[in-house]
Amino acid sequence: MKKVLVALLSVLLAAVLLAFDPTVYVSATIGEPDTLDPHLAYDTASGEVIYNVYENLIQYKGRSVSEFEPKLATEVPTVKNGLIKDGGKTYIFPIRKGVKFHNGNPLTPEDVEYSFERGLLYDPEGGPMWMLWYAIFGVHSRDEALEEFVGKPVSEIYDKNGEPKPEYKQKLIDFYKQVVDPAIEVQGDNVVIKLKRPYGPFLNIIAQSANWAAILDKETCVKLGLWDGKPDTWWKYKDMQKEKSPLYAWAMGTGPFKFVEWDRKQQKVTLVANENYWREPPKLKKVIIWGIDEWSTRKAMLEKGDADSIAVVLEYLDQLRGNKDIQIIENIPTLSVTVVGFNWSINPSSKYVGSGKLDGNGIPLDFFSDVYARKAVAAAINYDALIRDVLKGFGKRIPTALPEGLLGFDPTLPLYKFNLNEVRANLQKAWNGEVLKKGIKFSVAYNQGNVARQRIAEMIKMYMEMAAPGKVKIDVQPLQWPTFLDATKRGELPVFILGWVADFPDPDNFIFTYYHSKGDYSTRQGKKFQEFVSTPRKELGGKSLDQLIEQAAAETDPAVRAKLYLQIQKFVVDNCISVPVYQPVGVRVQRTWVKGWYDNPMRPGHDFYILYKEK
Residues in domain Solute-binding protein family (predicted)? Predict the structure, then answer.
């Protein structure tokens, strides 16, 4: 009997040892990428893949969000080393030699120039390229720069097929030759980027973690059918639809990992080590990023060792405590916020507004342009219970979409409060009292698998229906991540729950994004929102909110800047433009055999290059 037991134990031990593979890393997460095109991707799921496959000119140093080190450039530009000139308007990047793309093509300065120019000229709606337009040219989009150059609205420049009208074709060629091309130039082994005016966060905007500044292989891009690099064709490639981009579901850079496959059915991305990486090859030889929306499945994978780290549902974090094979890293600083947003002018094609009328079976498309409708939702969220019971304390209240840790954050600003009486009182005031007379019906959406956002949506439903029995009907809609993003971008969701992770560690990145008429979330909030924030107001001293935001971004005195942000935030709170729910406090859950991890709040997910596995 003893021999049998010993034999069984030996088999079990062998199986356990066989299961542990130090070369393969499985990350069980939520959802999947939206796109792998670096110039369109603007979410962390997409950014995580791009981060590990492509590289930028510079990267953040360790945990710092203000210090940099070289990447595809051999030096970080500074005034001291002579690579920042003209009072901060010229940046020189010496390009590293001997680096190869995954297909064997050598990295050249021309690849760097092409990457920046292609991104600027593509500039898809809802994408991240506004940051480079603003940093380099002082405008927020290609079209804004083009209208300024041509002197005509974009609607008059192109015909119905998207081709320039004959009288403007040469102007478009000149736009590239005189505006875009001179801003990014190759000079020998260097790439020189010329800013229209000094812009402090420029290096933050192009550092690694910013996929919009990733370096592509020009030759491959042209072969795939992207912009051919010629001045008389660029408009043919602008606004390319997501799925039509050759880079939608494929990636190829110089990074430590090569892209293998994006299995859409399984929400699974597979990467393998780049054994010819210009630094040392990664210790991990294969990485699987697997979108598994069910918590119980992710938990079981971690416990069995089938996953090395997982996206944790904080509500169930205690289920993992006490397991000696699992490490829980708590209280990780973040520069992130989760916000409930409103669409003030919903797309007529929306299927989330019922009848589209104030008749008891829907809501009018501009329902949330009424401040009392927005305030009713703000009062229907039990913030303290959410943070205590769902987030298990790993979140904190914030008065606006500006996170603690950045200039302008003010904890003395008022917080929205959960109050059923206030929900009903605001509904009674909304739409001149018609809401409670006729009744409303609409949907609140969240990305499937995100339990915290699911709970927020459920609270809005439960407490609004409780405050006005029979008069409010709300459907909670779980949507797959790409579907959810597309619906917000098309302006179809009346209420949506979204987070924002800093693109660069500056208050403008949050204030502009959420509250400016040209911010990334502005189209998701509708034309009436854009009109509201761009209209001059007495309470803002005759300026619009847009103008104040622009003034604050340009201000160089931190004390003056902080006062401007306080004024902006008071207006935002008073008008309940959106509802900040919480600022996350980070928690990471991984097997104890995972080594090398450290936090950096600018990172869009894992940096698999720094990780290795060891028992």
Answer: 67-521
